[in-house]
Amino acid sequence: MSKFDEPDHYKREDLLDIDWRPPSTPWMDTPVDLKKGTYIYPGKAKNLKVLDLPNPREWAVEEPDWKLPEDWQKRVLEGMAERLTKYRSFKIFMDTCVRCGACADKCHFFLGGGDPKNMPVLRAELLRSIYRKDFTAMGKIFGKLAGGRPLTEDVIKEWFYYFYQCTECRRCSVFCPYGIDQAEITMMGRELLGLLGIYVNWVIEPVANCFRTGNHLGIQPHGLMDTFEFMAEDIEDATGIKVDIPMNKKGAEILFVVPSGDYVADPGIYTCMAYMLILQEMGLDYTWSTYASEGGNFGLFTSHEMIKRLNAKIYAEAERLGVKWILGGECGHMWRVMHQYMDTMNGPADFLEVPRSPLTGTVFENARSTKMVHLMEFLADAIHHDKLNLDKSRNDHIRVTFHDSCNPARGMGIFEEPRYVIRNVCNHFYEMPENTIREQTFCCGGGAGLGTDENMEMRLRGGLPRGSALRYVQEQHGVNQMAAMCAIDRATLVTVADYWAPGVKITGISELVANAMIFQGENKRTENLRLEPIPGMELEEEETEDVEEGASVHA
Amino acid sequence: MNILVALAAVGGLFLIGMLGGMGMGWLFGIVIPSAAFLLFIVGMVMKVLGWSKSDVPFRIPTTSGQQKSLDWIKQDRTDNPFTTLQTLGRMALEVLFFRSLLRNTKAEMVGGRRLAYRTELALWLGGLVMHWSFLIILVRHLRFMTQPVPGWVTFLERADGFLQIGLPAVFITTVTFLVAVTYLFVRRITNPQVRYISLVGDYFPLLLLLGIGLSGVWMRHFGKVDLTSIKEMMLGIIHFSPVTPEGISPVFYGHLFLVSALLAYFPFSKLTHMAGVFLSPTRNMANNNRAVRHINPWNYPVKTHPYEEYEEEFRDKMVGAGIPVEKTPEKE
Question: CB–CB of A287/A253 below 8 Å?
Answer without folding.
Answer: no
